[in-house]
Amino acid sequence: MTKQDDLEQKANTSYFNLPPLDISIAFPQATPASIFPPCASDYYQLNDLLTPEEQAVRMKVRACMEQEIAPIMTEYWEKAKFPFHVIPKLGALRIVGGTIKGYGCPGLSITGSALATAEVARVDASCSTFILVHSSLAMLTIAFCGSEEQKQKYLPSLAQLKAVGCWALTEPDNGSDASALETTATKVEGGWILKGQKRWIGNSTFADLLVIFARNTATNQINGFIVKKDTPGLTATKIENKIGLRIVQNGDILLKNVFIADEDRLPGVDSFQDTNKILAVSRVMVAWQPIGISMGIYDMCHRYLKERKQFGAPLAAFQINQQKLVHMLGNVQAMILIGWRLCKLYESGKMTPGQASLGKSWITLKARETAAIGRELLGGNGILADFLVAKAFCDLEPIYTYEGTYDINSLITGREITGFASFKPAASSKRSRL
Ligand SMILES: Cc1cc2nc3c(=O)[nH]c(=O)nc-3n(C[C@H](O)[C@H](O)[C@H](O)COP(=O)(O)OP(=O)(O)OC[C@H]3O[C@@H](n4cnc5c(N)ncnc54)[C@H](O)[C@@H]3O)c2cc1C
């Protein structure tokens, strides 16, 4: 441990050992989100559409998140630190690895896995992103594209969260246009040399295992590699000053002649299309993040408006506030039903990439709208992270952008329904004479 680590650990320890805040003094008239509000947002009774196993997963995750994460999330979000001590608790939920069967993974239905994502996100979006990157991107890539040996070697410890994974596609100069990535993989005796940079990679500052995509210099195609922490030439530096998902540790990765043995090349990644197979599934999970976030926002507003009084009456008694609440509630029901239908299409093998993209883009759009109304409803407390809504409002911004921005996902659906791809502007051949 370096001196800096030691100092940071001491600072954190004393910070989090402070006597518990007397909430009634700090926040007169309304309860903050550290005591999480009951779920009032499931108005159309989603449980009726779930199997008993899916309902049980939902309740188990909800209880853990409300009891273990809600009391600490504001402090960690504010400090932009990751709460490492909760990793074993999240691992014990047996939701990591989601739909993967065997190799110590839970083998949940996609609906069960999606509900777990939503329940985590309802309380804390950063925690759900941590799990999503690890489980629905890194683990799923190994499950879909790894060799039998790689699956046996890596998936069991990842499923228990004894090891943490990340997934590195984006580069400083290649975000939406990820298929143009420039990190190179050159074949040498016994392995490969990786050179290049990656940006925004969640969990990368502490991940034990990094799934990295690079362009094969012989074939010009995209290949995938499993890179272990502390491999010589690999560095990951935390990106500071984010306004959303502040608990997630996003990093800039530098690959300086990193040697990867042949056994750590993912045999199932032969082209960029192979990453699209993973993204189509993970987008279903990402779509359930804003659903969970919006449920939490609604639940918080519902309790707050009944607790706080103005003009001698609870805020919930004013017609304009009721209309706003109902607007939010309608959004949440529509989001849930689209998310649920997406899962069913996936389960029946009928889901198309365009359908997954429409789900992700439309649900994030509605979640942003829901968060903006919720922020208004809480007045001044709507800008305090302590009351969840301000924090969730900020957390939705990166979710609107990652796994394909709203625009890119719209264009994926647009291509599917029209037959025209419009990602690249038509070459402007003539210069304007004006
Ligand atoms: C918090 C966070 C976490 C992330 N985690 C990861 C991770 O773990 N792993 C990973 O690989 N990546 C990750 N990303 C990267 C993320 O996927 C990219 O940010 C995203 O793909 C957008 O790329 P960009 O930021 O470079 O934006 P740009 O591509 O520069 O886009 C800027 C704007 O232009 C628009 N635009 C771009 N191209 C078009 C077009 N053809 N038509 C219309 N509009 C267009 C976009 O919609 C956007 O509004 C993360 C990002 C964030 C913010």
Characterization of this structure:
- This protein is of the alpha+beta class and 434 residues long.
- It has three domains: 32-159, Orthogonal Bundle (Butyryl-Coa Dehydrogenase, subunit A, domain 1); 165-271, Butyryl-CoA Dehydrogenase, subunit A, domain 2; 273-417, Butyryl-CoA Dehydrogenase, subunit A, domain 3 (Up-down Bundle).
- 49% of the residues lie in helices and 15% in strands.
- The protein contains 13 helices and twelve strands.
- Strands 3, 4, 5, 6, 7, 8, 9 and 10 form an eight-stranded mixed sheet that branches. A two-stranded antiparallel sheet has the order 1-2. Strands 11-12 form a two-stranded antiparallel ribbon.
- The model is unreliable at 10-16 and 429-434 (pLDDT under 50).
- It binds flavin-adenine dinucleotide.
- Flavin-adenine dinucleotide binds at residues 133, 167-170, 175-176, 200-202, 245, 250, 398, 401-402, 405, 407-408, 411, 423.
Sum up the structure in keywords.
AcylCoA_DH/ox_N_sf; 434 residues; single chain; Butyryl-Coa Dehydrogenase, subunit A, domain 1; binds flavin-adenine dinucleotide; two-stranded antiparallel ribbon; 3 domains; globular; eight-stranded mixed β-sheet; Butyryl-CoA Dehydrogenase, subunit A, domain 2; alpha+beta; AcylCoA_DH/oxidase_NM_dom_sf; 13 helices
